[in-house]
Amino acid sequence: xxxxxxxxxxxxxxxxxxxxxxxxxxxxxxxxxxxxxxxxxxxxxxxxxxxxxxxxxxxxxxxxxxxxxxxxxxxxxxxxxxxxxxxxxxxxxxxxxxxxxxxxxxxxxxxxxxxxxxxxxxxxxxxxxxxxxxxxxxxxxxxxxxxxxxxxxxxxxxxxxxxxxxxxxxxxxxxxxxxxxxxxxxxxxxxxxxxxxxxxxxxxxxxxxxxxxxxxxxxxxxxxxxxxxxxxxxxxxxxxxxxxxxxxxxxxxxxxxxxxxxxxxxxxxxxxxxxxxxxxxxxxxxxxxxxxxxxxxxxxxxxxxxxxxxxxxxxxxxxxxxxxxxxxxxxxxxxxxxxxxxxxxxxxxxxxxxxxxxxxxxxxxxxxxxxxxxxxxxxxxxxxxxxxxxxxxxxxxxxxxxxxxxxxxxxxxxxxxxxxxxxxxxxxxxxxxxxxxxxxxxxxxxxxxxxxxxxxxxxxxxxxxxxxxxxxxxxxxxxxxxxxxxxxxxxxx
Length: 493
What we know:
seven-stranded mixed β-sheet, 19 helices, 7 strands, 493 residues, single chain, alpha/beta
C-alpha cells in the first residue's frame, strides 16, 4: 500500500476522497437494498448499532459528569499563584492569534475586552490580529483596534494575509501567514520560542479569565510540552438564550459533547480554540495553506512528524463561543447548516491522514491505527447515525414481507425501541449538565418560556436531521463528487 501511494499520490488521494463518503452512503442505503436478500443480516446490524449507540450515550453522560465536576473545581483554583511559583514564569510569553475576515468591530472588541480580564500578566501577552487582504475593511479594522488595545499588551501586531497561488482562503492559510510573521518577530526580539505558547483564538470566543494562567502553569509543569496541544471546553453559550429553538438544541448537544471529550485523551483532538508551544508550530512548518479544517490538520501534521507522544491535553476551563446566528429565523438556520457543513468538511482531511498512516513507519502500529479508527468513526457516524437509528429497524419488515412474519422481523422494532428508550436516560444527564453549565437566564428571556427549555428536546430527531445529518451528508457527497467546499465565515450578529 505504501508503494502504491508513493507511486500514485493523486490517484490514491482521490481513492480515499471517494471511498470514505461512499462508505457513508453504503451504510445509509444498506437497510434498503440488503433487506431484499438478507433482512436478518440488516436486523442484526441495526440492533448491534443500537447497542453501540447506547454505549456511546453512556460514555458521553459519564465523561460529561466527570468533566463538569473537574471544570467546576478548576474554575475556583488560583492558577496565577500556581503559575508564579514556577521557575520560568517571568520568561514565558503567550501569543494569541485572532484570525478575522469581515468580522464586526463589536465582536472583535468583545473578544479583546475579555482578554483584558485575564489574571495572567498582560505584559507577557502578545496579540496578533490576523486579517485578510481580500477584506476591504482590514486596514481600518487593524488601525482602530491597534490604537485602542496596543498599550494593554506586550505587543499588538496586525498582519494582512495576501492569498497566494495554491492557497485556500480561510483560517488555516491566514494562521500560517501570521505564524511566520510571529516567528520572524520573535527572532528579532530575541524571545525564546520554546518558552512561548500560541493560542489559535477564534474571533468570537471569550476565554475564561484564568485561561492563560492555567495554560501557563500547565505548560511549564509539562515535561513533554513540545508534544502537546491544550484544549479548553468550547461551549456555544455566548448567545444561546437569543437564538431560535433548533439552534439552541444543536448547539447544546455540541457543547456537552465538547465537554465530555475532555477526559477522553485517547480521542481528544484540538478544536476551534486551542494552544500549543510556538516552537512546535515552527518545527512542523506552521498551519496548512491548502486546507479548511486547520485544527485537526495541524494535529495530524504534528502527530505524523513528531510521533506517538503527540497528544491533546485538556484545560478544564470554559471558553464561551457564539452559536451560529443571523438576522431572522431562516437566515440563522442557513448559517447553522453552513457551519455544520464546514465542520463536517473535516472528512476532506482523511486522505492526508490515510496517506501518512500507510507511509509512516516510525509510529507504533496500534497507536496510529487507534487514532485513525477514532477519526473514521467520528466522520462515518456524522451523516449515518440518524438513518440507522431512526429508520433502520422499520425498513427490513416493510420491504420483505416474508421476514416480517418471522419472530425477529416482528420484534425488531420493539427491541430497537427498547434499547434506544433506555438511552434517553443519558439524554437526561446531558439536559442537567446543560442547565448547570450555560449562563444564567437573562431578564429578557421571559419566565413563561422556561418550559420550552425542556420541551425543546422533543424536537431533537427533526433538528438533528436538518442541522447535523444533512450538512454532514452534504459535505461527504461534495467530497465524493470532487466538488471542493469554499471557506465560508460564519456571520456574526
